[in-house]
């Protein structure tokens, strides 16, 4: 039988997952009053953390009574109790090391007091802030990250695709002749997942292939040119294949900078512009060095423009493949003018229903699992969503390679017939870019 524990929640855990109260099994949960004070500062706004702050307040309101401050309020069958810690104790052991009564230090003080009063029951501080966890450990206070939505196996992001050797030459010849074979004809059929891309090799030839569960076939993948952009390697060919397949409604493209993730997605979207009412490109606004939007001059659109510039750069790469006065460039300008091609901040997507839209979400590694879920649930009929990102370049302070929304979505969606994940390894931007990406 498990021994019951006490968990003290930091503000960032609630802002990360407003339903976190239901994920601690039979253990008791403590929320310092300073956490509620901090949540008040986040309730106004249109970002996901603002939404989470409001939703948690509503969750709290459903169970709120005077028991919260005394004996704790029950969280349901098989769950523990919820306590609000409303006291101002600041033990000497805390003040000696951390004399400034900052919010983090007050949370630390409450955790220390609860731990001392609850012995031998373990009391653990749960925080996404590694600095606060280190401060806790320096005092002998147990601390851990919020791991409910962490992905343990991220080895899939270290490789590009599987290669199956010793394939019959006649089978590969048949694929070249017919464009595909039945899955039952493939010797490694038990090893492949739906929409998986791989290479088949015989002693005399090889072929790029993808398993399409809708037809039950292993099809040949060709390097298909889309709106002036041609795949330069096998990985990009695989990416273009799933991006152009309207049976694949959800695509994840991962890889380091310069591998062509966003460019492939945008080119494929433009190639299919007649099939969708709108092509929408968006990315989360995550400021570096704590430089908030408020410090930038101009109106709302002017403020977000620097953050959207990488998307415009990819659009310009495509335009540069055509004559300045060419029909393709005129088409792109017309699509932007008519709002058929839109580039905007991800925050503006909330509440919308996206039907017949090719939706590209760039820098998805900076999203939480709940944010990714929110985006996908915006999808209406005829919509395709593509997430791109580099899990090694995370700018959000409380996400990492195991907990961001992109890896979480890939982990949960693997094996679904309408989902495909392509990991791009080889950089194609330039030799300099590839060298820096590998060595620096």
- Extract low-pLDDT stretches: 287-296
> Whole-number average pLDDT?
88
Shape descriptor: elongated
Please name the fourth-level CATH homologous superfamily of the largest domain. Answer: P-loop containing nucleotide triphosphate hydrolases
Descriptive notes:
A six-stranded mixed sheet has the order 3-4-2-1-5-6. Residues 287-296 have low confidence and may be disordered. The protein is elongated, with a radius of gyration of 25 Å. It starts with a strand and ends with a helix. It folds into two domains: 5-144, 5'-nuclease (Rossmann fold), CATH 3.40.50; 233-439, 3-Layer(aba) Sandwich (Rossmann fold). It is built from 14 helices and 17 strands. Helix 8 crosses helix 9, helix 9 packs across helix 10 (300-319) and helix 12 (369-376) packs across helix 13 (405-413). Helix content is 34%, strand content 18%. With 440 residues, the protein is α/β, with parallel strands linked by helices.
Q: Gist?
A:
Mean pLDDT is 88; it is low at 287-296.
Topology of helices and strands:
Layout: E1 5-9, H1 11-16, E2 28-32, H2 33-42, H3 48-63, E3 73-74, E4 81-85, H4 92-97, H5 103-118, E5 122-126, H6 130-138, E6 142-144, E7 162-164, H7 169-178, E8 180-182, E9 197-201, E10 206-212, E11 217-220, H8 234-243, E12 250-255, H9 261-271, E13 278-283, H10 300-319, H11 327-337, E14 341-345, E15 357-361, H12 369-376, E16 384-389, H13 405-413, E17 419-424, H14 431-439
Parallel strand pairs: 1-2, 1-5, 2-4, 5-6, 7-9, 12-16, 12-17, 13-14, 13-15, 15-16
Antiparallel strand pairs: 3-4, 8-11, 9-10, 10-11
